[in-house]
Predict the 3D structure of the following.
Amino acid sequence: MNRYKKNASKVVFSVLTGILCITTYAQKQPDAGIWATFTVEKDFTKKLTVGVDQEMRLRENYSRLNLFYTNPYVIYKVQKRIKLGLGYRFISKYMYQTNSFSYRNRLMFDIAYKNKFKDVVISYRSRLQGELRDYNCDPQGKMPEYFWRNKFELGYDYKKITPYIGTELRYQIIDPRNPRANYGWHRARTYAGVDYDMNKKNTFGIMYLIQQEFDLDDPGTGYILGLSYKYTL
């Protein structure tokens, strides 16, 4: 019982101090990449939405494949401003050291809040995710890792264009490959972008994101260009 109380106290303390520690502990190893995302989405009812994302990422100054993932998801609108989401992500990450792919299975649960004040939109998403890596070929493959992600975003609806800025902080709950960082913040993303609604079915987006890692064995900083296209059925 004392062990659980101690861990709970550590989580609360880290939540209160994590944002202040980000700039202090971040170390920069700059890299540039591209994230290209294609999404298909359909509203089955006023409350239920189903969709799937397909994404490809490049790294090392756009010269090397990083990963592919397929991400089906379900979103349920609890009320006007609150939604619940459940998603599964199958990830194929290229490991250039071994010239092979690492296969990962991730389950995600979201609680999202969104409110609009005239043309200004504010939103927050809390995500709890668990992931297994290389289940059949890694000694630690059957040991799940857990993270808690918090995303804050501010946007402005102007006719068909929505510019936005945001930030996301990731909290490591348990990672068997990096246990010294358990119960602590270790990644921050800051981004800005714009979405263009061509019509009711087609939305294009472009984004620029800076990702900083800290309190890891090999922390890095990434500068990411994001390109997206969503088709609504």
Notes: Residues 1-6, 15-28 have pLDDT under 50 and may be disordered. Residues 40 and 231 are 5 Å apart (CA to CA). The two ends are 51 Å apart (CA to CA).
